[in-house]
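quick one, 164 residues, struct below
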Amino acid sequence: MIVSAAIQRMIGFYRGNCHDINHFLKVWAMAKTIGELEGLDRHTQEVLELAAVIHDIACPLCREKYGDTDGKHQELESPPLVEAFFAELPVDRADVARISWLAAHHHTYTDIGGVDHQILLEADYLVNADEHGDSRSAVENFRRRIFRTAAGTQLLNSIYLREE
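---
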């Protein structure tokens, strides 16, 4: 129920920006799918899904302030936005802190901090590879360097690396 409320709020937050809305919905769907297939416990799954919903919360501000959505800018700008977003939702403060950390680090591919971080990275890439038109070799390289979950790897292979 809380995830649905967050989705509704995030759609409003993006003020009709269809690209941003469609992007977060696809990342959420991928994260939800991978988490469920990997057998996450209910709490970790909920935190993961909430993080996927808001993972790009800083993008509008970063576009306005910096002219781009660079990961380092998002890392800097995300935490206060996440805090404000969840202020009126019944989410435990410790969970908000984790969600905030995940949003700030969803472009950090070193020292991956937990299965929720791993899945969020994989889910975001599954969507970004299509949106950015990544080449087969770029997808293969990212799979080799970053993908670790069986479900995420299977999705990546079946979407982008199918044999003709």
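The CA atoms of residues 62 and 121 lie 20 Å apart.
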